[in-house]
Amino acid sequence: MFDYISGKVAAVGENRVVIDCGGVGFALTASAFTCADCSRKTEVKMPAYLAVREDALELYGFASERERDLFLMLINVSGVGPKLAVAVLSGMSQDRLTAAIAAGDVAALSSIKGVGKKTAERIALELKSKIADVFGAAVGGDVGQAIQLADEDAVLALVSLGYERKEAEAAVRKVAKPDMTTEQLIRAVLRG
């Protein structure tokens, strides 16, 4: 029913963005990455999804079409509803998530808050081939290296310091070495 919501960012909270669209405030549930992205903007055109339940209508918003595509794939996994799908999208970057699913990395998936081992196994099993088909270029190459180099906490810290998300991810990948802590990664990036 809703393809996108366009308007001024009225408020950003934890997993929630309010978009003022013609004097009406639409509250959208969103991932931590989408909320961080919206907090730096005054106006957005946000891809959306309307979840219809017996007792509620809930709007979900996304920073990109790619994030919405991942969300739609996740909610089609048995036992994964919209709220858990948002938690998964908040748990790690899209690149790291697609790499973890493509690699069948149950340990990485189950490290996300709210995702147990059985759910992580279902996500990996049901989406492994679909991820490669839909996001082929994003998961190409050495999947283990992509996961190893993606230190999400360092990227989030850099974004909070004013880096653009893609810039922060590229900077972390550039300086990352095995077994570096988040603090070491941030220092290495800031040193240039």
Keywords summarizing the entry:
11 helices; 192 residues; alpha+beta
Characterization of this structure:
It contains eleven helices and five strands, in the order E-E-E-H-E-E-H-H-H-H-H-H-H-H-H-H. The protein has a five-stranded antiparallel sheet with strand order 3-2-1-4-5. Mean pLDDT is 85; it is low at 137-150. The longest helix is centred in the middle third of the chain and has 18 residues, at 117-134. It is globular. It has helices at 32-39, 65-75, 82-91, 94-103, 106-110, 117-134, 136-139, 143-149, 152-160, 165-175, 182-191; strands at 4-13, 16-21, 24-29, 43-52, 57-61. It is of the alpha+beta class and 192 residues long. The protein is 54% helix and 19% strand. Strand 2 (16-21) and strand 3 form a beta hairpin. Helix 9 (152-160) crosses helix 10 and helix 9 crosses helix 11.
